[in-house]
Design a protein that fits this description.
The chain is of the alpha+beta class. The chain folds into 2 domains: about 140 residues, Jelly Rolls; about 100 residues, Orthogonal Bundle (Arc Repressor Mutant, subunit A). About 45% of the residues lie in helices and about 20% in strands. It is built from 11 helices and 10 strands. It has a 6-stranded antiparallel beta sheet. Strands 3-8-5-6 form a 4-stranded antiparallel beta sheet, with no helix packed on it. The longest helix is centred in the middle third of the chain and has 18 residues. The chain starts with a strand and ends with a helix. The relative contact order is 0.12.
Length: about 260
């Protein structure tokens, strides 16, 4: 068998712009098992698998929803994967799924346990091509957003503010700008984002730092630490260890050799 990899992507319908980060289809065929380290990411992820199981940190899943998390996960499939992925900003995910996102935080949950859309997987699998599948997702997500309670404007604003700053804004400043107590802000984030503001900021900061470092041949970690909002290089290294279990140098060495 010849190795094969296919990814199809299309932007969401106009009414879903800003509510769906992206969705795409994937199909992969390899000679043997494929193992990757992924995340944590800044979106709630819905993975729809048409016929294969996945191992995620050793637990078996087919179609699932993954909430925001503070660490990477290891994913593995047996050599074949075929399905779709939907990435949702947490405020939109809270509206579409209709449940407190702290119930999904740092976890992976069966799709049918949190999304009441009978036969959605089968309908997507049987659609004629990727465009037909994207059209179906547009219709399903548009309807769910129209029927949902709108996200809290304050929490949505705070999440966007945190994202725009790449996790650099302090929780106390967020609360002050909203005119909320810190306790109220933390409770709102747990409900509609899934993580506390401090934990969410760490994830945002990590993902931005990774993106910056990936563009450099020889990253200057002391300089990157300052630019990305860490107190110092030790703070950056400690955060990388929390998220990946590795130092930045080891993490990017493994990524370069395909073992991360």
């Amino acid at each position: 068998m010849t190795d094969r990899s296919e990814v199809a992507q299309r932007g969401p319908a106009d009414g879903l712009r800003g509510r769906v980060t992206r969705y795409y289809g994937f199909r992969e065929e390899r000679h043997g098992p494929v193992r990757r380290r992924e995340g944590p990411g800044t979106d709630v992820v819905i993975v729809i698998s048409f016929d294969q199981d996945w191992l995620i940190d050793g637990a078996r899943h087919t179609s699932f929803v993954g909430g925001l998390r503070q660490t990477q996960v290891t994913t593995e499939h047996g050599g074949r994967s075929f399905g779709m992925q939907i990435d949702l900003p947490p405020p939109a995910a809270h509206a579409i799924l209709g449940l407190p996102l702290d119930e999904l935080a740092n976890d992976v949950v069966r799709l049918e346990d949190v999304l009441d859309e009978p036969s959605l997987v089968e309908r997507l699998a049987c659609a004629g091509d990727w465009n037909a599948r994207f059209d179906l997702l547009d219709r399903v997500l548009s309807r769910r957003m129209a029927d949902a309670r709108p996200p809290s404007k304050e929490i949505a604003w705070a999440w966007e503010r945190l994202s725009a700053s790449h996790g650099r804004i302090r929780v106390a400043q967020l609360a002050r700008e909203l005119g909320w107590s810190r306790r109220r802000l933390v409770a709102g984030f747990r409900e509609e984002i899934g993580l506390t503001p401090k934990a969410a900021a760490r994830v945002q900061r990590f993902e931005h730092t990774r993106a910056v470092a990936e563009m450099l041949v020889r990253p200057d970690w002391a300089r990157i630490a300052v630019e990305c909002g860490y107190y110092d290089q030790s703070h950056l290294i400690n955060d990388f260890r929390v998220v990946t279990g590795q130092t930045p140098v080891t993490f990017f060495q493994d990524t370069a050799t395909g073992t991360a």
